[in-house]
Amino acid sequence: MPSHKSFRTKQKLAKAQKQNRPVPQWIRLRTGNTIRFVPFPTLYLAHTRPFAKSDILDNGFLADNPLCSYNAKRRHWRKTRLGI
Fold it and tell me: What are the boundaries of the region Disordered (predicted)?
């Protein structure tokens, strides 16, 4: 009788679990690195330049700012499912 969870499913779950973590702090301190945490929410940037509502991410940052997306694969277990 086969198991409930196949080995391929288990591999996919393990990879998703390893990806779902914040960026290590030493990566941000590397020389010439552009991954930084930008503590400027959109409310602060609202009066500096106009932007569309589609530019706002769920965490309150602007989508066109490359400095705020430090881990694009971070997900919440209930909000974003793996689809397996």
Answer: 1-22
pTM over 0.70: no
Residue 56's SS3 state is strand
What pLDDT digit, counting tens, does each position of 30-76 carry?
878 777 655 555 445 555 555 565 555 555 555 555 444 578 778 99
Number of H helices, E strands in the chain: 3, 0
Closest CA to 56 of 37, 69, 74, 73: 69
Q: Which residue has the tokens 């930008």?
A: 38
Reading the block at residue 78, the tokens are: 């209930």
Q: How far apart are CA 62 and CA 13, in angstroms?
A: 30
